[in-house]
Design goal:
The chain has 217 residues and is of the alpha/beta class. The protein is built from five helices and twelve strands. The structure holds zinc ion (ZN). Zinc ion (ZN) binds next to loops.
């Protein structure tokens, strides 16, 4: 069984998730921010290797730890949704870091891959993915066992931010339809900000019509 450990980052309270299994020495990361807590966790839990990084999208608060992780784990794979995601790794306007005083450009030597619709993280552990534009053109959601990672596409209690470069409320409305089909299946949503929550009883209309949009870039 895959375990997710949520770390809350210093910048914009974005979430990083460490994905691990009891009998595996390698881990995967979702949306790296502060790198030191990840290094500490890996050491304290007797893990050895970072297999790869899964990016829900490439806004700066979800990627700013990538370069520091690459220094220690240069072979690790970095998964993005599509060409927009690849662009976001080096385009400081698109990833939003131009406006923070700390521009983020991911190292050229990075092993960048596109998510496959289905791919294995470990033997017998499959990830399924679906591109869900609306918050950004490179937003992707993925399922691993009962976990559903949604980045900034679905955050508990908040209206999804769309009034930014690459955002579209029309695209988001289409993307949210997919979540409706996934209700009733017991998924635990692991969002890009805030706490995990159950998808089954969640009012998905809040992503489109909710009033509160604070801090979910
Ligand atoms: Zn974002």
């Amino acid at each position: 069984m895959v375990e997710q450990t949520r770390l809350i980052n210093a910048q914009f309270n974005s979430n990083t998730y460490i994905l691990s299994m009891e009998d595996e020495v390698s881990v995967w990361l979702v949306d790296p921010g502060d790198a030191q807590p990840v290094f500490d966790w890996i050491r304290q839990n007797n893990k050895k290797d970072l297999k790869g990084i899964l990016l829900t999208h490439t806004h700066f608060d979800h990627i700013y730890g990538v370069n520091e992780l690459l220094e220690k784990y240069p072979e690790c794979l970095i998964y993005v949704a599509n060409e927009y995601g690849k662009e976001g790794l080096t385009n400081i306007k698109q990833n939003g870091s131009k406006y923070t005083g700390n521009p983020i450009v991911i190292e050229k030597h990075a092993n960048i891959r596109f998510f496959e619709h289905k791919m294995n993280l470990w033997p017998n552990v499959e990830l399924s993915s679906l591109i869900t534009p609306g918050h950004s053109d490179d937003s992707i959601c993925f399922m691993i066992e009962n976990l559903l990672f949604t980045g900034d596409t679905l955050i508990k209690g908040l209206r999804t931010v769309t009034k930014i470069r690459g955002g579209s409320v029309e695209k988001l409305t289409d993307s949210i339809q997919h979540f409706k089909q996934w209700q009733g299946l017991g998924y635990l949503v692991c969002p890009g900000h805030g706490e995990e929550f159950d998808l089954d009883k969640y009012d998905l209309g809040r992503a489109i019509n909710g009033s509160n949009t604070k801090s979910s870039l």
